[in-house]
Amino acid sequence: MIERAVSRGDVAATLAHYDMALRTSPNSKQLLFPILSAAIADPTIRQDLVPYVRHGAPWIGGFLFNALDMPGGASSAAELLLASGRKNNVALLIDLAPGLLTHLVGSGDFPLAERLFLALPKADAAMLADPSFTMRTTDPVYGPFGWRAIESADASIAFEPAEGGRRRLYVSARLGAVGDQILLQRTLHLPPGNYLFVQQPEAKTGENSITWRVTCLKAGDSSAPIWTSGNDSPLRIVPTCGWQRLELLVGSDRSDAVDARIDRIGFARADSLLPQAQP
Question: 73-84 vs 90-106: helix axis angle to the nearest 10?
């Protein structure tokens, strides 16, 4: 079908027929969406689809959402959106970004995920290395590059407004029921180096109910954590650890509950105080 159209050089005409069918016969998407979702892996077909994205074809959003469930579909959909230009499709980009970014990070395609993230409104490279709680970093539009709460029947996470555009984190959990459980996570892009963790208010000495940890992210690899809070050791990011996941865990051997407020967290560069991180 469309693959033969590529060989004949008439992709544009084929897409025009698909466009007409999708506009006039809603049931046609059940047949055509899977075909198009598989076909957009071809750069030629993606390029001919750009005008339909730019001009907001009524079926394009549903088609791109459908593509997320296809093997490699997230990468192809992201490339199509980027080729179409942010100016022409901001609303579509915002709708698709959380799912696209989650798929791309999950598959380890960090360069493409970063490009898509930077195309979003108010996104910038500095945000990727800033773990603080702000209106931007808690906005779900940024997918895994923003803070994401993990649902739990025995714990709750809430962000509330604070001064200067910041947000304050509240954690509540029944420790005996929760055990060790991830309640909050975010993907970061800290440059190589040594870092000291800062939290306000500071955790009390011996308090073991709330823990932060960092894991290196690599495609197809579930690495062990490289740093855990509470032992005063620095976080060392080596050049091979280009992307990281920061997580908050709640857990304790005690059976009581925890209610905590965290105003801010951060990683302060400490290369002048510590040996340089090595691969």
Answer: 150
